[in-house]
Write a structure and sequence with these properties.
This protein is of the alpha/beta class. It contains 6 helices and 4 strands. The chain has a single domain, classed as P-loop containing nucleotide triphosphate hydrolases (Rossmann fold, 3-Layer(aba) Sandwich).
Length: about 140
């Protein structure tokens, strides 16, 4: 089964996956992939353009391969804000979409405390895009930070 976890930055998507995935499952998390490919001591959420280009290509390859094994393992994918095209593909793959959203105020507080300032724009874009739209999944709080 394909489980796509969406939500704004710092909502708790990775935490949700840690609470639901098993060691046997496949987890495709761009942040974890970047950290794994970065040099020692790299920041968990701030990466250079070249590294991110490599990581995005690796993510694309990992997704395409993982889709071939949905009948054998569960695949968890973090996709902050999937496009209409991505959502259509997830629908064809019969994905379960889970939206993690503890609320704008909590997310902005987390971003200000733990992320780069430019992530505030990503949060704003995420919430603006969702105005007037029903959630794809059930909004959920993550953990108490």
């Amino acid at each position: 089964m394909l489980i796509v976890v969406t939500g704004p930055p710092a909502a708790g998507k990775s935490t949700w996956i840690k609470e639901h995935a098993t060691a046997r499952d496949i987890v495709i998390d761009l942040d974890l992939m970047a950290l794994a490919m970065a040099g020692p001591g790299a920041d968990h959420h701030a990466h250079g353009d070249v590294l991110m280009r490599v990581v995005h290509r690796a993510r694309f390859a990992a997704l395409n391969e993982a889709y071939q094994h949905l009948d054998k393992v569960d695949v968890y994918v973090i996709h902050t804000q999937p496009s209409a095209k991505a959502l259509a593909k997830y629908k064809r793959l019969e994905a379960r979409i889970v939206t993690i959203d503890p609320g704008r105020e909590i997310v902005m507080g987390r971003v200000k405390a733990m992320r780069q300032p430019e992530m505030e724009r990503v949060v704003t874009r995420w919430y603006n895009a969702r105005r007037g739209r029903p959630a794809e999944g059930m909004p959920q709080a993550s953990r108490a930070w």
